[in-house]
Amino acid sequence: MMSYSLQVAGRSRVVVGRTVEELSRLLPQGRVIVLTDRNVARCRPELFEGCDPICMEPGEEHKTLQTVEEVCRELIRRGADRTTFLLGVGGGIVTDVTGFVASVYMRGVPFGFVSTTLLGCVDASVGGKNGVNYEGYKNMVGTFNQPDFVLCDPAMLDTLPEREFRAGLAEIVTAGLIADRELFGLFESHSLEEFRRDRALLGEAVMRAVKVKAHIVERDERESDERRKLNLGHTFAHAIEKCSRDFLHGEAVAIGTVMIARLSERLGTDRELPPVRLPGGRGCPRAERIRTDGAARRDRHRTAPPDRRAEARQEKRGPLGRLRADARHRRLRDTPDDVRRDRPDGGFAEVARRQPSTLRSPPLVQTPKSCVFPPEKPCASVSGIQRATIRPHRHTARNASSGPSRRPGQGSRSTTP
Predict the structure, then answer these.
(1) How far apart are CA 14 and CA 119, in angstroms?
(2) Annotated catalytic, 231?
(3) What b-and-e string marks burial along 100-121, b requiring 16 or more CB atoms within 10 Å of the CB?
(4) What is the pLDDT of residues 106-133, one digit of tens each?
(5) What is the pLDDT of residues 275-315, one digit of tens each?
(6) Best CA proximity match to 383, nearest among 242, 238, 235, 236
(7) Residue 211 annotated to the active site
(8) Has 18 been annotated as catalytic?
(9) Which of 18, 50, 216, 236 could form a disulfide with 256 if both were Cys (CB 3.0 to 4.6 A apart)?
(10) Catalytic: which of 139, 229, 231, 340?
(11) CB distance 27 to 85 below 8 Å
(12) Model pTM greater than 0.90?
């Protein structure tokens, strides 16, 4: 496979090629400490022969300051100093934690990445952003610091689950929408299965996506102006991730990109843009034109039969609206039969009378303003970072009050002879 290489911000080098061949050439002379997670250490043991890596727990819930403290404590135990090179091997969570630790440990040590996920290759590991979550807020604590190198090997993506692979492709499609028509055209002319099978095609797509990000970061490294383009779809995506843990980051970005495109169409900011074609799903590369004429869509809605109007209303609510509806459906589905009545159409009606002793809220906040919690019950925050006590619901607190209620002035009176 051909090897690609480019510079980011004049200091960081991104290489798409074979890991074994490139890593020995990229690593500096001296001591190297590897940071990875337990899944990568188990699936890729050949990468860690002859070294003792620091293994963190996988998952977004472990991307916290507590994990950073544990890694720093282990570095101190191993006697790491400013000449030690820190190598992060893993997906976006591992590279974020590695970059943050390398930026703060002894005021900064050199570091590099070997990205093992498609999402990490095109997004998390490139650009110099290193951050961890704090009290439910995503990437709230972090630094801007460029790694010495980022190594992406398409051969390492063969073991990725299908869902994670498709989520990574969503970030590549977003890069094409931002600044590369030819990259977007690759998804028009090739199916997702072809990207999975053809490493050369996947390598070209990864390098094109990295070039888009590298050129923008070169002009605006600290996101004061132009780099905000790279946040396309991410504002809605972070809201979705905060409301639900059912979506991968790439899936949330795909939904957020569709949401902002529909908002742009509704506000009329896309009138001057030509129609584009969207890549299809499984099998043949099916494509669909994005309509910019809102009047035609409204006319089609007026003439649609009643059953199609219901579907149109569901579509108009958008992905976040459907997310709320699904969460409500799950909550009512788990409601006991004695406090629920079924509608004739087979759907769920509102709960007739909620009983605090029988109702139990879902373990996580699924949607804003839609979750009823039992009194003073600890509830995990959406990122699993910190547990907080939820204030009891108004009617729950009233039912839980002890003793008969007294009106003002009905206190005990002293009886004087």
Answers:
(1) 15
(2) yes
(3) bbbbbbeeebbbbbbbbbbbbb
(4) 999 999 999 999 999 998 888 999 999 9
(5) 555 554 433 333 333 333 444 444 444 444 555 555 555 55
(6) 242
(7) no
(8) no
(9) 236
(10) 231
(11) yes
(12) no
